[in-house]
Every structure is written in C-alpha cells, then in structure tokens.
Hints:
By secondary structure, the protein is mainly β. It has helices at residues 4-14, 122-139; strands spanning 18-31, 34-47, 50-51, 69-70, 76-77, 88-94, 97-104, 147-148, 163-179, 187-206, 213-220, 226-231, 237-239, 248-249, 252-253, 255-256.
Amino acid sequence: xxxxxxxxxxxxxxxxxxxxxxxxxxxxxxxxxxxxxxxxxxxxxxxxxxxxxxxxxxxxxxxxxxxxxxxxxxxxxxxxxxxxxxxxxxxxxxxxxxxxxxxxxxxxxxxxxxxxxxxxxxxxxxxxxxxxxxxxxxxxxxxxxxxxxxxxxxxxxxxxxxxxxxxxxxxxxxxxxxxxxxxxxxxxxxxxxxxxxxxxxxxxxxxxxxxxxxxxxxxxxxxxxxxxxxxxxxxxxxxxxxxxxxxxxxxxxxxxx
Length: 257
C-alpha cells in the first residue's frame, strides 16, 4: 500500500514544482472475498519552503462580484467577474496502484517581493481566534441547512445548536491567494494563519433520512476546511470560506478574496 512518504516521492516525479502532503485518508473496500485499501492524498504547493495552504475547492468563497445578487429593490444583478478556484492536487491509490490523479487550476508564481514583512506574534493571533470564533459561528448562517444523518456540510454549527464542542486539529502559517482587482488570472499571495479543525454539536436534524426533526449529534470533519483564517500581518479576519458577504468582527475586519 502507498505510504505518505511514498506519495510525496511519487508526486515529485510527475508534477513540476515543490509539493508537500497536506493530509491523507484511507478506507477499506471489501467485495466478496477481496479487500482493497483505497488511500487519498491531498497536496499543497510550496513556495520557497512556505505552503500555499490547502483548501477544498468545493468550499471556496465567491468574490462579491463573481456571483449574481439581488439588491434591496429586488433587482437581479449578473456576476461581473469569474469564479477563481484554488489550485488542487489530489492522488488516489488502490492497494498501491495509482487509480486517480487530479491537478486543477495550477498557478505559476513570479515576481517575488523582497519587502520585509512584520508578522504578528502567534500569541496575539491565538487571542484573536479565541475572541472571534464564537461571533463567527453566530453570524455565518445564510445558507445553513439542517443536517442529514448526523453529517454537516457547513463549516459551522447552526445557531439552534444546544451545545457545541470544537477541536482545533491543525494551525498552519502559509500563503493564501487574493485577487488583483477583479482579475481571474492574476493575484497575490499573502501570509495567513489557517485554523483547521472539527466540531460536534447537539442540534435539530433530519434523522435516518426521514422528515421528522429531532435533536441529533451532528459532526463536521471535512479535510481542508479552515474554521477561521487570520491575516498574519495585521490580525484581520479573512473571509476565506464564506456563504455571505464580508462582515466586521471584534478580531478585525473581514475581507473577501
């Protein structure tokens, strides 16, 4: 079976640039008397030894100009610029044999700045996270749907949750790409802290695929979905994954990609 080190060595031979394994996940596939192990590997690009932090494409935010919207007078507005997806590199092996390889939206890094950046001490960043995460949970509810069979595809519990237990599994300093104006082809890499993690809550849900609402244990443990992103330069909260427009929080000013 393919190991994490083996996958990193494998990707070096088939994709240019420097890559680092962000995470991997394995599961057994059993059919009759045959059992195979399927392993998925998720990679992030490195730029001079610094990661461009991985984030699932399906959870990318939309820039305010890259989606249609309706104003206060119920007038419909078309999107004014294209959605711009993050780079993604994923490999899937089945019992050691490459089964799937996907490299989407590759980026090319150029014009590195020689400007010295001051980054906030992590203790300050940690305080901003602790002061902001509760407010973030309470305000990001635009498209939150009841969970089905105890699994949530939203980044946060609903405001109706009776209790919430959140666990931070990984905090990573790396780059995040931001647009250059309304461009869908050029942008900049800025340093951010990404707080990845999981949560479990007791809240209204549809149980067993039925129509009846019950109080259920709901979880979110999707790989590559930051619970919060903080700009490492000034401590502002970045709306890296969002459903609604940018919002101002106690920890800083929310920004859109």
